[in-house]
Design a protein that fits this description.
Blueprint: E1 3-7, E2 10-12, E3 18-25, E4 33-39, E5 46-51, E6 57-59, E7 67-72, E8 77-82, E9 91-98, E10 112-113, E11 117-121
Parallel strand pairs: 2-11
Antiparallel strand pairs: 1-3, 3-8, 4-5, 4-9, 5-6, 7-8, 9-10, 9-11
Amino acid sequence: QLQLVESGGGLVQPGGSLRLSCAASGFTLDSYAMGWFRQAPGKEREGVSCIGRGGGTNHADSVKGRFTISRDNAKNTMYLQMNSLKPEDTAVYYCAALSRVACVLTPLLYSDWGQGTQVTVSS
């Protein structure tokens, strides 16, 4: 059974950094395209960053230059390094898996999701 577990969220001041982790079980991470998504209160879930099976990445314009997605195949874990955080980055962050080669930032296409981790950027 495919399972995803996020961790690493928390409270951080504007300009700070956090690294989120997504531990996968029941499948090998590099056999799927993987994505990070977020949902703020009262807003729709949106794509943040994704990584394809071949390692190609894509990022939302709002996080380009600040967020980096990566994965460690040996640990079967995906990461999201978030730098220069802003209050508008506050949201619940989710990781998800997509049975395709290339990744996309469209939440509706992803079939398997973690439970989410809260990120709050505030002074």
